[in-house]
Amino acid sequence: MKKKRLAVPSAALALLLPLAAACGGPAGAEDDGTVTVTVGYQSKTINTVTAGTLLRSLGYFEEELAAQGKKDGTRYRVVWQDYATGAPITAQMTAGKIDIGSMGDFPLLLNAARGKQLKEPTRLVSATGYNLRGGLNTVVTAPGSQLRTLADLKGKRVSTSVGSAADGTLVRALRRAGLDPAKDVRKLNQQPSVGASALAAGSADALSQFVAWPGLLAFQGKAEALYDGAELDLPTFHGVTVREEFARERAGALDAFLRAQRRATDRLRAEPVASAESVAKETGLPAEVVYLYNGAQGIATFDPALRPELLAALEEDVPVLREAGLVEDVDVAAFVDPAPLKRAVTAPALPRAGAAKAELWLRGRSGTLAFATAGELLAAVAKAAPGSVRAAYVPDAVTGTPWFADRAVWVGDGSSWRAFVTRAAAERWVAGHPGSRIAAYADAVRAAAP
Questions:
Q1: What fold is seen in the domain 137-232?
Q2: Which intervals hold domain SsuA/THI5-like (predicted)?
C-alpha cells in the first residue's frame, strides 16, 4: 500500500492561511547588514508573555541581541508581530516570514505538521506557561444558563477554535461525559472574540476557550464556568517554536531569545503584581484577569524547561488532532529540540512548589496577601474596608484551579468553607458530604466574619 503523504486537510488549511502582508521579514541581512529577527506572539494569550508581551515590554531580547551582536559582529533588529491565535503565526513561519513564535500545545503540533509538509521544518525549543492538570482551558456558559453539566450540551451550539488546546479540552471532556463531539454538539469554529460575542448574543450556548478568555468573561460577569479543564488531569501548556533554518543559521540569536525568555520568567516570578499590571497595560486586559493566570498563585506555572510531562502530553494530543482530520501524524520526538535551551540557559528556572493558596489583592497595595485556607480568605474579605478589595482568588477544592472568589461556587461544611470553579463540582461534593451546603459568596463572607 502506498504510504500517504503528510497533509493538512482543508479544515486546517483555512486556519493556517497566511495574512496578506507581514511586517518585517525573516532573519536576513538588510542592505546595511542589519539582521532582522521577526517574532510572532499572542498578546492576549497571556501564558506566552515570557516569550511575548512581557518580554517585549522589558526589552530583554533587544538587550541580549545587542550583546550577542558584539560577539559575532552583527547588528540585529527585532520585529514583533501580534496575533489572536497560533494558526497565523504558523502560516507566517512556514512562509519564511516569522522566525520565532509562541503558541499552545495543539497549535504547536499543527506547526510541526505544517512545517514538515511545506519543507519549512520547525522545532519546539522551550515552554512558557503550563498547568499540569489542564486548568488553562475552560468551558463557560452565559450567566443564568440552565446548562449545568457537559451532558447538558447535547444538541447545543458550542463555540471554540478548531485545532486549539481549548478545542482539545472540549473534545476530551465531551467524550468523558458520554457524548460524541462530532454528532452530539454543534461545534462553531470561531475566533475567541467572535465566540465571546456569540455567547453574549445567544447564538452560542457555550464557549470553550483558552486563557485568558474564560477568566475575562467571568470577571466581566458575562460568563459562568461550566467545566474546569483541570478535571481532565492532563497537562496543557504553551511553548516557543523556531524555524529550523533560523535555529541553524542564527544560533546566537536564538540563544539570545532563550536567555531573554529566562530573564522575563525570573522577572514575572519576582514581581508578579507589577508584571500583571505591565501585561494589562500592553494588552488592555484587566490586571485582575492577568493575575488570575500569571500571578504568584496563578493557574499557570512559568518555566522554560521542556518537562517530560509536557512532552508526554504532546504525544497524547496527536491522536485527537488526527481523529479531527487536522493532521495525519506528527513526529513529536523529531519536533522537540531541547539543545538550544540547554546551551543558552545554564541555570534552570525552578517552578513554584506546593499547593495553590488563596490570595487577596487590596487596593493601594503593591503585593497580595496569601492564605492557607478558603475560610481564612473569606474572613479577610469580611474585615477589609468597603471598596478596598480589588480581587480575591481561591483554588478549587478538588482541582486546585484558582478562580475569582466572587465567581466561585461556595460550599459550607460546619465551620469550614470550600470553593469550586463550577456548580457541578460543588454539587458533587455536597452529594458526597451530608450536611454540607452550597452558599452564595456574600453569605459565605458574612458567615466567616470574625
A1: D-Maltodextrin-Binding Protein; domain 2 (3.40.190)
A2: 90-273
